[in-house]
From TrEMBL:
Name the UniProt record assigns to this protein: Glycosyltransferase
Gene3D superfamilies from the UniProt entry: Spore Coat Polysaccharide Biosynthesis Protein SpsA, Chain A
Domain Glycosyltransferase 2-like span(s) in chain numbering: 17-125
Classification via PANTHER family: GLYCOSYLTRANSFERASE, UDP-GLCNAC:BETAGAL BETA-1,3-N-ACETYLGLUCOSAMINYLTRANSFERASE-LIKE PROTEIN 1
Pfam families in UniProt: Glycos_transf_2
Amino acid sequence: MTSFTKFSSIEPNPLVSIVINNYNYDRFLKEAIDSALNQTYQNIEVVVVDDGSTDNSREVIASYGDRIVPVLKENGGQCSCFNAGFAASCGEIICFLDADDIYLPEKIAEVVEIFKSSEEIGWCFHNLRWVNENAELLPQLSTQRPTVECDFRDLLKSGKLPPPLPATSALCFRRELLAQFLPKPISKAVKSTDFYVKYMAVALSKGSFLGKVLAFHRIHDSNAATLRKDKHNVYTIRAMEFILNGSWIKQEFPVLKRFANKLVSIGISLQWQNNRKDIVIQDFIRKYMKFSSFLEQIEINLRAFYHYIKSTLKPVN
């Protein structure tokens, strides 16, 4: 069993940074910012990272004056927003929020209590409730887990996946933990992915899953992948996410190479399911295999075949 990592004691009333990433979501952005500002827990800062929007997002951001910390940058994708938001933040605890999603008022108060409960907890995730474009409740939860402390580090080091992890707006971290792997690598090939931050967090630290719905995840026609009906595009997006994140993890944390190989094998299987050859994906696979041993290459392809057989008839969400 991996020994526990101890973090610094959380202050009695810690500053919490809510980092909102936005790109062309002016129609949702105000509701996201208001939900962050209207928390029952008061010691917060709201950092809004605008990723080169071409709509009216920056006018919305300007309307809040000094109530928020604006970060206005050129378009670089969600990964670059995590980097920029983290760099601009000051909180002991960092919580991410997609600009099309909504926090419930008690979210930050609940999360702070989890982090204060143990110096070994580096991350806290929770359930999300799906809502439609008008913020009306849909029947599904994105994840349905009870409140439980979790340690997946040995699992990932052995090359296995953790249980399903929720989307960006359910992810909260100690600053000390994020500092171990941010800034993260970025690529124009994948502009929207939270895989790296949540996989690296569970790979490096014990954490807690809070079995409550503390945010609404909005489902609409512009979602990057969730519940999209254009199967081929979803397969392409997911394949690239798995392959690129596997490449980044192996490069930055070689001790996790078995887990990285697992991610790449899943990405390859998704490409096979897509029945389309993507030149960019093929290039990333070639580069990854070039720096893998012959036995690793065999294992990756065998795993890819296994996932292909297992998942061909299962829809990608």
